[in-house]
Amino acid sequence: MTGLTREEAAGRIMVALDYPEAGAAKKLLRDLEGIPCYIKVGMQLFYSAGPAFIASLKESGYRVFLDLKMHDIPNTVKGGASSITKLGVDMFNVHGAGGKEMMEAAMEGVDAALAGGSTGGYRPTVIAVTHLTSTSQVVLNSEIGIAGSVEDAVIRYATLAKSAGLNGVVASPQEVQLIKAACGAEFKTVTPGIRPAGAALNDQSRIMTPSEALAQGTDYMVIGRPITGAADPRAAIESIIEELVGNE
Ligand SMILES: O=c1ccn([C@@H]2O[C@H](COP(=O)(O)O)[C@@H](O)[C@H]2O)c(=O)[nH]1
């Protein structure tokens, strides 16, 4: 047993709604009705369904992570962060690779939107992507051309994100303990690369099972295809919740 209630376990899961349009995403939400999970909207759905879909999620009471991974010059990211904050999402992200000034600009964008009062004063959690969970050690060194271990590269971005005032990072569950050691327990870790035992890896590289990720101390685990691609998505998420509660 982990000590998590069923509701707490569900609340650690961010379901990735990687769909081409709102209709398919809404069907999944109907399938999962009543399960208090977080919802992650990425670029595929947001570029198609836009702010109206985010508004409908918020009206339905969901916590929303808008995963657009902004990576641009500081002034542009500041403006993007301001616009995203006005959508009233609970969390959004930028790429750590944009550097400290870009990440600070994102925080300035949040402050500017809040100063305008259009979000009711609600401050989103802002996190930075470290290295994508699809990136392996070999790809990091041989293709991207960054020397050293994935762990060192992730920690470098995590500490940079913390120094820029961000609230956490996206990383693999494999790096959670190192991130917490370097940046503190309160610094949030949001971890994709979650695969229940026996599930297809797809394009993910640095993976762990849900219970392994929880044991590492991850704050939130992002799970897409193991739920959305299942014949019975509700049964799939219920099984993950059971695994997290420790009743398996
Ligand atoms: O490093 C990263 C950053 C973001 N993601 C996103 O998480 C989900 C994972 O989906 P699965 O179907 O469970 O693989 C997806 O929306 C990615 O864009 C990530 O995987 N890794």
From TrEMBL:
<feature type="binding site">
    <location>
        <position position="40"/>
    </location>
    <ligand>
        <name>substrate</name>
    </ligand>
</feature>
<dbReference type="InterPro" id="IPR018089">
    <property type="entry name" value="OMPdecase_AS"/>
</dbReference>
<keyword id="KW-0665">Pyrimidine biosynthesis</keyword>
<dbReference type="Pfam" id="PF00215">
    <property type="entry name" value="OMPdecase"/>
</dbReference>
<dbReference type="InterPro" id="IPR047596">
    <property type="entry name" value="OMPdecase_bac"/>
</dbReference>
<dbReference type="GO" id="GO:0004590">
    <property type="term" value="F:orotidine-5'-phosphate decarboxylase activity"/>
</dbReference>
<feature type="binding site">
    <location>
        <begin position="67"/>
        <end position="76"/>
    </location>
    <ligand>
        <name>substrate</name>
    </ligand>
</feature>
<dbReference type="InterPro" id="IPR001754">
    <property type="entry name" value="OMPdeCOase_dom"/>
</dbReference>
<dbReference type="InterPro" id="IPR013785">
    <property type="entry name" value="Aldolase_TIM"/>
</dbReference>
<comment type="function">
    <text>Catalyzes the decarboxylation of orotidine 5'-monophosphate (OMP) to uridine 5'-monophosphate (UMP).</text>
</comment>
<keyword id="KW-0456">Lyase</keyword>
<feature type="binding site">
    <location>
        <position position="204"/>
    </location>
    <ligand>
        <name>substrate</name>
    </ligand>
</feature>
<feature type="binding site">
    <location>
        <position position="195"/>
    </location>
    <ligand>
        <name>substrate</name>
    </ligand>
</feature>
<feature type="binding site">
    <location>
        <position position="225"/>
    </location>
    <ligand>
        <name>substrate</name>
    </ligand>
</feature>
<comment type="subunit">
    <text>Homodimer.</text>
</comment>
<feature type="binding site">
    <location>
        <position position="133"/>
    </location>
    <ligand>
        <name>substrate</name>
    </ligand>
</feature>
<keyword id="KW-0210">Decarboxylase</keyword>
<feature type="domain" description="Orotidine 5'-phosphate decarboxylase">
    <location>
        <begin position="12"/>
        <end position="240"/>
    </location>
</feature>
<dbReference type="InterPro" id="IPR011060">
    <property type="entry name" value="RibuloseP-bd_barrel"/>
</dbReference>
<feature type="binding site">
    <location>
        <position position="224"/>
    </location>
    <ligand>
        <name>substrate</name>
    </ligand>
</feature>
<dbReference type="InterPro" id="IPR014732">
    <property type="entry name" value="OMPdecase"/>
</dbReference>
<feature type="binding site">
    <location>
        <position position="18"/>
    </location>
    <ligand>
        <name>substrate</name>
    </ligand>
</feature>
<comment type="pathway">
    <text>Pyrimidine metabolism; UMP biosynthesis via de novo pathway; UMP from orotate: step 2/2.</text>
</comment>
<protein>
    <recommendedName>
        <fullName>Orotidine 5'-phosphate decarboxylase</fullName>
        <ecNumber>4.1.1.23</ecNumber>
    </recommendedName>
</protein>
<feature type="active site" description="Proton donor">
    <location>
        <position position="69"/>
    </location>
</feature>
<comment type="similarity">
    <text>Belongs to the OMP decarboxylase family. Type 1 subfamily.</text>
</comment>
